[in-house]
Amino acid sequence: MRRSTIKLHVISTKSVALRSSGRSPIKKAAQVTLAEIEKRAILAALKRNGGNRLAAARELAIGKTTLYRKLQEYARKAKKPKKRAAKKKAAKKRK
């Protein structure tokens, strides 16, 4: 199975840097995981390309299937906390 990676030259410091109040962006950026940097780069590429997934994949030098898989993974992770919160609310109502 071929693994795709995002080439570092594609990720600009502007898309990764965090706005901070008085702190060095380098120190803040060191606290960001590689997965978060990858997600930010993908979402920024999608925004620059007007939501065009194929163009974003080309810009990031990854396959379109890899991009689709990553987007599905982000959507799946975004849904999980909501389900857990709903279960907790339902459990509190039962008590």
How far apart are the termini? 50 Å
Look at the structure and give the mean pLDDT: 77
Q: Number of helical runs?
A: 5
Radius of gyration: 17 Å
Strand runs, count: 0
What fraction, in percent, of the residue positions are helical? 55-70%
CATH homologous group name: Homeodomain-like
Q: Indicate the CATH architecture.
A: Orthogonal Bundle
Structural class of the secondary structure composition?
Answer: mainly alpha
Could you list some keywords that capture this structure?
single chain, 95 residues, mainly alpha, Arc Repressor Mutant, subunit A, 67% helix
Give an overview of the whole structure:
The chain has about 100 residues and is an all-alpha fold. It has one domain (about 10-95): Homeodomain-like (Arc Repressor Mutant, subunit A). Helix content is about 65%, strand content about 0%. It contains five helices and no strands. The chain has helices spanning about 15, 25-30, 35-50, 55-60, 65-95. Helix 3 (about 35-50) crosses helix 4 (about 55-60) and helix 4 packs across helix 5. The longest helix has about 30 residues, at about 65-95.
